[in-house]
Structures are given as C-alpha cells and as structure tokens.
Amino acid sequence: xxxxxxxxxLFLFYFQSNAQQVTWQCSNVIIENPAAFVSVWxxxxxxxxxxxxxxxxxxQFDHVSSxxxxxxxxxxxxxxxADIQGNFAKFMNAKFMNTAGIYETWxxxxxxxxxxxxxxxxxxxxxxxxxxxxxxxxxVQDPAGYxxxxxxxxxxxxxxNDGQGTLxxxxxxxxxxxxxxxxxxxxxxxxxxxxxxxxxxxxxxxFQEFVQTVRPFSEILHVLTGSPVKFYNVD
Length: 235
Fold this sequence. Notes:
alpha+beta; Alpha-Beta Plaits; 2 domains; 8-stranded antiparallel barrel; 33% strand; elongated
C-alpha cells in the first residue's frame, strides 16, 4: 500500500489528552514473512536503541482494494515532533550496525512502498484500544468547515453507540495518496459491531446533515480497514 493512516489505529491511547497533538510517521510495507519479521522486530525493540525510540506499532491491512499492495504498516508516534525525526536517525544507524539482525531481516523480508507523515486534529484517547478500524481517505477543500461539521457529527455518533466506538480526524502532511488531505478513522470492538452501528447511524438525521454539509467541499477517495499486530514503548 502507498499511504494511509492505519498506523494510528488502536495506538493513540498512549497519549492521555485531546489537547496533545500527536505527530505520526507510518511506513507502508510488504512483509514476505510476517512471523519472522515480528520476531526480529521484538528483539530490536528490546535493544538500547529500540527502547530509546518513541511509541511504535505494527499493523496489518485487512480489507483493501486492488490499488494497494502493502500488507502491513510500521508506525511511530509522539506528541513531540522532534522524536519522530530522531527515530529516523536511530533506525538508520541500527540498520547500518545490523542491530539484532534488523538490517538482514529488513532487506530480506520487507519492501517499503511509501512513508507518510501526519498529525491528529480531533481524536479521543478513550477508545483507542478498540480492535477494528475503518479508514476513510478524504480530499478536503475547506478544512475548517469540515472540522466543524465533523465535531458535531462525532458527538452524536459516539452518543448513539453506548461508548462502543469512536471517530477521529487526522491531517496528512506529506507522502499521502494523490489528492488525500485528511483521514477519518472509525473504531469499534469488532467488524460486526462497526457494521451494525454504521448501518443504523448512516440512516440518522445527524449523519445526513453532515453529508449534506461537507459534500460541496470534500470527497472520499479510498476506504480500508486494519487491525493491530503489536505495540512497543507504550508503558
């Protein structure tokens, strides 16, 4: 896959306040042998270099179109953007030194398709540990107008599902899919619960009002789903 924000899925609970704007960097990759890769990544993240890096997660893509080929995403997160830049230098050094065998494993098992940089705009940590997520990749021409409509819709959506789902809005800063400026992430405990809530909420007056409001200045370009494999440095 080229660029998406699935790396944000299920992980921002590491940050404890809506006021904290999280910067994230995700590499979309094809992993030939996921089990072997995760085993080596476990060892790498237990080294001094790995432990010194910011929060990290590996995600797998579950439902994507034929336009995307990546199988996984490796993401870094922090409420301090300098940490993200520091991670890059540390990882390059680790590959050069072949720390915990990461250089050989990366070269043999990983094809990196892209790297995307972004930040959270509206995100509630309360539901970031939910197990299923849907990502809507969107082109937005009026960010302020979209955010205002999204905030209103989000409150109604989360009130209607008894706390069993959350919505987030993120901005794509660099490396994104052509035309994609923002992404909306919808979380739920499972695909079945997401689908049930989706079908009910899509017919609601508040959702139809949201659609009518944002339609003139936004367009959904891609929809995909994913789930977590493992988290690191979140304690």
